[in-house]
């Protein structure tokens, strides 16, 4: 009788495992199917613009959807290179500013801060992540942009003798610029990267940290030898999520970037970004113009996928190298 009950329980467990495995498989396939449908439908809607512009859709800097001096749509030009450039530049500035700060805050809260300070700092970071993006944008255009213009002028004077940097920090600064958009994005993605990185740091085995300290390592040497290598994959994932948020941000960027479709090395000049262009112009679009805006969404989707795949390859190669060194 007992053997019969044991077999019944094993059968039930096997059936539950099978059901759970099928449910997880269905969830994964559903996500992939949704992504595939999004990619197919947006590409289908954008195809008229792709057919008209061809490769110039990504390589040309001329965005003239409606030419008032021309006979009509035949004179329109759909070159999105300036928008792709603005998106990548603003997102890169955001990462350069946000990643060191985020990792520093995460290390402080997990390794250095007194226990009584950890919860208030964590709650504050989580609160910053909950602020709507339009609030950041309004603060940026009303407070940061006017105040930053003078500081940008000081930066130009400081770096004017330095070759290369004198072009990045160029003359005639504007408060609504690529740099201001990057700063706003950095503030917005810092809570996301910090929270995820902090959770990754808490997964480092205590034994590895204690072993490093027992061998005479300082606190920094323990972090460099035990915490950072163990957390590299998780940190990269956190940075990629922050980058995805930065590249897809719309309202805040639209308010502070300046809405000027130009490709300039001077970070203090206005620019434009793909999500901001879609938000600003979609309401007045139609026909091939609307298809071109849909094409911007397809390009943003493709760039995000390429960056994430590159990050996964980087993490995989790093993990293989770490195992080989071990």
Can you walk through the features of this model?
This protein is an all-alpha fold and 326 residues long. It folds into two domains: 2-64; 79-325, MetI-like (MetI-like fold, Orthogonal Bundle), CATH 1.10.3720.10. Helices cover 76% and strands 1% of the residues. It is built from twelve helices and two strands; from the N terminus they run ααββαααααααααα. It has helices at 2-53, 56-59, 81-112, 115-129, 133-159, 165-168, 178-201, 206-214, 219-248, 251-256, 274-281, 288-325; strands at 63-64, 77-78. The longest helix has 52 residues, at 2-53. The chain is globular and about 70 Å long. The N and C termini lie far apart (52 Å). Residues 67-73 have low confidence and may be disordered.
Q: What descriptive keywords fit this protein?
A:
MetI-like fold; two-stranded antiparallel sheet; single chain; mainly alpha; 326 residues
Beta percentage is: under 5%
CATH third-tier fold name of the largest domain: MetI-like fold
- List the secondary-structure elements in sequence, H or E: HHEEHHHHHHHHHH
Mean pLDDT: 85
What's the overall geometry? Answer: globular
Q: Specify Rg, calculated over alpha carbons.
A: 25 Å
Strand order within the widest beta sheet: 1-2
CATH architecture of the largest domain: Orthogonal Bundle
Overall CATH class of the largest domain: Mainly Alpha
Low-pLDDT sequence parts: 67-73
Main sheet specs: 2 strands, antiparallel
Q: How many domains make up the 3D coordinates?
A: 2
Number of helical regions: 12
Query: What percentage of residues falls in helices of 4 or more residues?
Result: over 70%
Q: Which structural class matches the secondary elements?
A: mainly alpha
């Amino acid at each position: 009788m007992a053997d019969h009950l044991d077999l019944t329980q094993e059968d039930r467990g096997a059936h539950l495992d099978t059901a759970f495995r099928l449910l997880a498989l269905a969830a994964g396939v559903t996500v992939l199917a949704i992504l595939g449908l999004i990619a197919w439908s947006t590409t289908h809607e954008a195809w008229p613009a792709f057919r008209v512009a061809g490769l110039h859709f990504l390589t040309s800097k001329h965005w003239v959807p409606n030419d008032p001096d021309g006979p009509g749509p035949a004179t329109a030009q759909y070159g999105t290179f300036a928008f792709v450039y603005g998106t990548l530049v603003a997102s890169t500035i955001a990462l350069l500013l946000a990643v060191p700060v985020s990792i520093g805050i995460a290390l402080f809260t997990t390794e250095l801060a007194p226990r009584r300070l950890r919860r208030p700092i964590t709650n504050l970071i989580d609160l910053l992540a909950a602020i709507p993006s339009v609030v950041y944008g309004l603060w940026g255009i009303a407070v940061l942009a006017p105040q930053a213009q003078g500081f940008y002028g000081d930066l130009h004077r400081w770096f004017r003798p330095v070759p290369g940097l004198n072009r990045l920090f160029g003359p005639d600064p504007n408060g609504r610029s690529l740099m201001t958009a990057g700063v706003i994005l950095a503030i917005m993605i810092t809570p996301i990267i910090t929270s995820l990185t902090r959770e990754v740091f808490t997964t480092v085995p205590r034994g590895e940290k204690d072993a490093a300290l027992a061998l005479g390592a300082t606190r920094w040497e323990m972090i460099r030898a035990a915490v950072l290598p163990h957390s590299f994959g998780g940190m990269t994932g956190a940075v990629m999520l922050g980058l995805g948020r930065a590249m897809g941000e719309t309202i805040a960027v639209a308010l502070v970037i300046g809405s000027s479709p130009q490709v300039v090395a001077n970070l203090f000049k206005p620019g434009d970004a793909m999500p901001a262009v879609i938000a600003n112009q979609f309401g007045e679009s139609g026909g091939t113009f609307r298809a071109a805006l849909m094409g911007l969404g397809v390009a943003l989707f493709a760039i995000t996928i390429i960056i994430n795949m590159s990050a996964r390859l980087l993490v995989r190669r790093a993990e293989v190298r770490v195992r080989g060194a071990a």
